[in-house]
Amino acid sequence: MVDIKKIKRKLVKAGYPLIEASLKNGSVVLSGELEDYEGILECGTIAVCKESRGVVNDIRLKGYAPEKMRICPVEDKAYDGESPDVLVIGGGIVGAAIARELTKYALTVTVLEKEYDIATGQSARNDGMIHAGIDLKPSSIKVKYNARGNAMYPRISKELDVPIEMCGQCVLYTKRWQKLLFPFIKARGAKNNIPVEKLGPEEVKKYVPEPGIKYGGFMCPSAGILSPYQMTVAFMENAVNNGAVLHTDTAVTGIDNDGEKITAVRTNRGTFYPKAVVNAAGIYSDVIAEWAGDRHFTIHPRRGVEAVLDKKAKKATSAVIGKFVIKSSTGKGHTKGGGVIVTVDGNILLGPSAKETPERENEATVPEEFEEMIAKQFKLAPKLKRSDIITYFAGTRAATYEEEFVVEKSPVVRNFVQAAGIQSPGVTAAPAIAEDVGKWVAEIVFGSDVKYNTNFDPIRKRIPKPSEMLPEERKKLIAEDPDYGVVICRCEEVTKGEIKEALRRPASVPAVDAVKRRVRAGMGRCQGGFCSPLVMKIISEECGIPLDKVRKKGAGSEIAFRYTKGGDR
Amino acid sequence: MRYAAIVIGGGPAGMAAACAVKESEKVLIIEREARLGGILKQCVHDGFGVIRFGEKLSGPEYADRFIDEVYSRKNIDVRTLTFVTDIEKRNGYFVVTTTSGKGIVSYEGENLILANGCRERTARQVNIHGTRPAGLMTAGTAQNLVNLMGIMPAKRCVILGSGDIGLIMARRLTLEGAEVVGVYEAKATPSGLQRNLQQCLYDFGIPVSLKKTVTLVHGRDRVEGVTVSDVDDDMRPISGTEEYIPCDALIVSVGLIPENELAENLGVPIDPRTKGPVVDQYMMTAVDGVYSVGNALHVHDLVDYVSEVAETAGKDVGRRKSRASIEVTQKGFAYLVPQRIDAANVEKETTFYFRASHDTERAKLTVTINGKTAVTKKYSMLKPPEAVRVKLALPVKAGDDVKFVLEDDDDGNV
Amino acid sequence: MTETFEMICIVCPRGCRLKAERTADGIAVTGNKCPRGAKFAEEEIVAPKRSFTGTVRSVFPEMPVVPVRTAGEVPKDKVKEVALLTRDVLLTRAYGVGEVAVDNVCGTGVDLIVTADMRKVIGS
């Protein structure tokens, strides 16, 4: 039983006598108004208790009007009346993995993504770690899905032709006393079946020849890395090839519920009538849950900034970084230490930071957060230089007060499945979450007589990448299609053939940034300075879009306003 | 067949170098774009060739003269839309592997002339925070869009950085009907040439604000505005001075970085001041047979000098039999090129290029050889954005200790 | 009466800072490092001139815009007029460098010439 009185007492004791606490739908609902955001967060944390389904924190921030969900300005009836068996809300890595999993069943699957492309939120804005899970609470939902997902990735990598590297994670102690913690870490590892290797200051050098901090650490060999947006694209391409339908620029604006189940999902492109609905809406997953009729948690966005370093930095510091992920030991609260990562593409990635913010969709970087983050990470690898930083970006993670995933078949709404509140280690957990979601959806739609898609093909081939091919292989490809010989992005050696193929793939989007995520054109040290006009031209030619209408990302991001000479062509 | 020289980059530097190689020697130019000319193709403004041809030519016109020369020369082969993927140094020659629509082809050359130009520093690389929407681009990209593709990336824009390309684009966008709200420069003095300030900004009443920088970009899909702030002497934004300026584009012209990834792979030592290779007076790097010319060597103010420097390299191909390079010690410069002198092949005069480290009313250049003053020269009004070219008679011998010093000249007369 | 003018010489890249004084006797220029500077200052005071550079449209998709410039300088206050006029110019054949796109542009007596060899881009 949830002891509401006890929570109320705690709130009063913490200085929040005016905050109301009540029990609704099995969760603790907070209401009232506070002047500072920290206070709202503190109340949310106080209200966490094992017996409840979660915290619904409805405390308003005084003078702050919550941002409106960003919705593509298009409003029409393009998809009105569509009635797929299952509607997946959200085209991040979780939604994409779920979509692919669902196509293993004899189901019609439609994915709704409110942005212009898949993998634009957290899925493009994280460090791509396949976590070992050593920092996760034993017996948590997170650790369960993390372990399963971790074990699934080698096979998925082969099926979807997306490279992963199980390079291990080297954790450095930032303070001398932390080495005393090793027995606990080891025990935790044993409990979760995660191998851990103790490293003294000298042994660290086996993995990190010149560590910035010299107190030793430990190694988790079962950690790895992947490109999270490439993986998302691969999941979705494979899903679409197996029959799933993707609607981008399609945002859910409301959900109709007849008291026991969802009857309709309204969007800016028309109303859908699915048999089952999956909530994989990331940073907006609590809003979707509310509309669906089963909100029992709260997303409090947590912004992180990461810096990308020149591939040359890896070379210059190869002795420092090795092929290993260095992470500083878990710090206080929920701000994991972040780290120094050599990505699968050979860049070094620093970060992330962690800053609580009421803004779900503000992905602007903030100088103070950035400076603090790089100062911290440079300590781990002191040979890195500021001038090696080629870009930086921020994203918001979908944290709940329980710091847990919400992965469940709703006990309240009959045809609703949630994969919500997914933040780190969401990339690792995604395929495992998808497996369970798939089962639950099949139960909802088929009952006990589950039917499978006998034509499901798990194999997806990546876009050919000449720069990584052997000369003979490369020659053969160019002979078949000369465009694979013409380099467009000089920094990343991306060819015209790759860009054209990216535009022809299922789930492709004719926008410069969408091309960038798929083939890396513009991801190098000049950041698209040279290649973006060429990429625009290829998009224009390949997709029949006038040059002045080619976009960087979604609607309203046309790179040009018009032709020169005052107008039309 | 083995080429006497393989020139990488078919811009002004690469073309001038190739044309300067003796006609009896075979030369190959490898160009990654569809046409020769490099960045000059998009520089439709004039001012090119005043020194070399005594005419004010546009960029394409200046390039065209060299393009005609290249194609008229029987000893020069050209491969366009061809990209170098690898260079391997063998015993006394180089193997350059390329990719193009025709396949993977390797070429052999006794010498390499690296003329691959420079790239632009981006907004993120000068610490600009906020969003990354459409409308945020470098001046060179904007120039490409407007002058080659014929599309307009701005209606009302802010320009950050007073480098020449930024100034040129301010005028260009204005004449195409856009409004340039202002040019912001974090330094205390403009980076571009004085005459560009005059004819690109003052002529059109475009204001320049010094010691101010853009700190934040706003707008998610499209630039909606920028925040500008005053900066202190270390170019750090001063809090409390923020000002929001509505605009739909931010065009940054905040410096050029020589592209030397190929050079670095060959083990060519890089001068941290120029960010280009260390070279001798014939533009040969410390790796035998590898030359560096054009903006890959150091960022030039004028294409006329790019051509001149590149020709020095081209003429040297296959000429020197022995070399005895000594390092020049330098003090008081932003940079000095060449950084080495081949004492075995000193001619009557050696050409040097340098930039002052700060604005100076009066300055004195002193060159000493083994502690003895060989040359002194006085200058008035030195500014870092304006490189100085000077020919000096330096009778240097192998093993000499050569020192260049540039200092403020307090005792007056120029 | 003496009028004083300060300006930057734009004749060559050196960018001399010029001072000019206009009296009843004429214009006296200082700060110039060559005679062209004195001439520039005088012109700048009496009738300033500039060259125009820009682009015009062509019918060829390989080269949608083509660089042009005035063959010489035009009165400074005509520059915007020339810029506006370039909007209406459409090249329908492949021009070579120096070929006249518009003669006597805006009545200045100066021609607008093409500055790139279109034949090299689009074939002849």
Describe the structure.
The complex is a heterotrimer of chains A (569), B (414) and C (124). Chain A contains 16 helices and 29 strands. By secondary structure, chain A is of the alpha/beta class. Chain A has 4 domains: 4-61, Histidine-containing Protein, Chain: A (2-Layer Sandwich); 88-122 and 229-299 and 403-446, 3-Layer(bba) Sandwich (FAD/NAD(P)-binding domain); 169-221 and 304-389, 2-Layer Sandwich (D-Amino Acid Oxidase, Chain A, domain 2); 466-549, Arc Repressor Mutant, subunit A. In chain A, strands 10, 11, 12, 19, 20, 21, 22, 23 and 24 form a 9-stranded mixed sheet that branches. In chain A, strands 14-7-6-18-26-25 form a 6-stranded mixed sheet, sandwiched between helices. A 3-stranded mixed sheet of chain A has the order 1-2-4, covered by helices on one side. In chain A, helix 14 crosses helix 16 (532-543). Chain B has 414 residues and is of the alpha/beta class. Chain B folds into 3 domains: 1-120 and 255-319, FAD/NAD(P)-binding domain (3-Layer(bba) Sandwich); 122-254, FAD/NAD(P)-binding domain, CATH 3.50.50; 323-414, Immunoglobulin-like (Sandwich), CATH 2.60.40. Helices cover 18% and strands 37% of the residues of chain B. In chain B, strands 1, 2, 5, 6, 7, 8 and 21 form a 7-stranded mixed sheet that branches. Chain B has a 5-stranded parallel sheet with strand order 11-19-13-14-15. Chain B has helices at residues 12-20, 59-72, 139-149, 164-175, 194-201, 261-265, 303-316, and strands at residues 2-8, 27-30, 46-48, 57-58, 76-79, 83-89, 94-100, 103-114, 118-120, 129-130, 136-138, 151-152, 156-160, 179-185, 208-210, 212-218, 225-230, 243-246, 249-252, 256-258, 290-292, 325-331, 333-337, 340-342, 350-356, 360-369, 372-382, 388-392, 402-408. Chain B contains 7 helices and 29 strands. By secondary structure, chain C is α+β, with helices and mostly antiparallel strands. Chain C folds into 2 domains: 3-46, no CATH class; 53-122, CPE0013-like (CPE0013-like fold, Roll), CATH 3.10.530. Helix content of chain C is 20%, strand content 34%. Chain C has helices spanning 35-46, 79-86, 118-122, and strands at residues 3-8, 17-23, 26-30, 49-50, 53-58, 65-70, 74-75, 90-91, 100-102, 112-114. In chain C, strand 2 (17-23) and strand 3 form a beta hairpin. The longest helix of chain C is centred in the first third of the chain and has 12 residues, at 35-46. The chains are: A alpha/beta (569), B alpha/beta (414), C alpha+beta (124). The interface between A and B is large, with 58 and 52 residues.
